[in-house]
Amino acid sequence: MNVHYESKYKKIKRQIKKLVFENAALCDEVAEVQTELCAAREERRYLVKRLLRHEGFENVGKEDNPAEAGSFSTQKLSTSKKRGPKKRQRATSTGGGSVEQERDGITLSEKKFNVDIYGKPKFPINLSNILLHSMGEILPTNSNFHNEHWIYPVGYMITRIYAHPKEPQRKCVFTCKILNNAGMPQFQIIPDNDLDSVFFGESANVCHQGLLETLQRSLADVTKLPLRVQGEKFFGLGNTTIQSLLQNQEDFKHCANFKSFLSAAEWNFPEDKDPTICYEALQSIIAMSAYHTMPEVKDEPPDELFELN
Question: What is the pTM of this model?
Fold first, then answer.
């Protein structure tokens, strides 16, 4: 009987020893994979920084020189560039023929960036807070891709900097896209440093709400982020330059449901002060919350209180 248990004990001991070695080998392999992942993350961050530098995010203030930047309008390529402002002045003074320009609120000749030999803009276009990669194509016959105040061109893509959804104090480059999913628009917000956290839906507000809810969970112990969903604004569709580019497309006038873009006065907050869109504004709220949650250090009581009468 003892011999039976002894053989059983030795067999279990050998299995345990084998499992210990397997566990050690797996630990070594996991450590090696983690090292490779860390190296891959560093390489990715380095490439993202180089991409931002190449696409002009770090040289926003240096591209305002009109001598270096080309005019968006084809009037700069011709010799009649001085006639544009005079015609606009006559139209506004007489009150006729300026309905379209007053409704648009901005003309293409007022924006300056590089153009090709045909007068079309060269992408990407740096718009300070966002980088426009593609304007996409307007689908006027499909009412799902436009409404009373917004137009959603298929293939539209921008990138912008905002807080990482899981690490709000770290910057992250977000790619915003509009795609055609079987006749319905599909909006996507893709953080470059975390491709597993992709926000998508049938409206821009659904994507923006998902991003803000993830940020709220990450900031639960720090501050309460206001849930102001403004999907179109996050996608850059409220930018006046992008709206002008949309108005310049031939299919813009054929969007039957569209009436006019929302003006900047109709927004609740300016973009540079909105923590749901601007990275700097969000960091200000986080810093103020951290300051107010610090324990107050009170002065020590005077020695006279401890003296006996």
Answer: 0.60
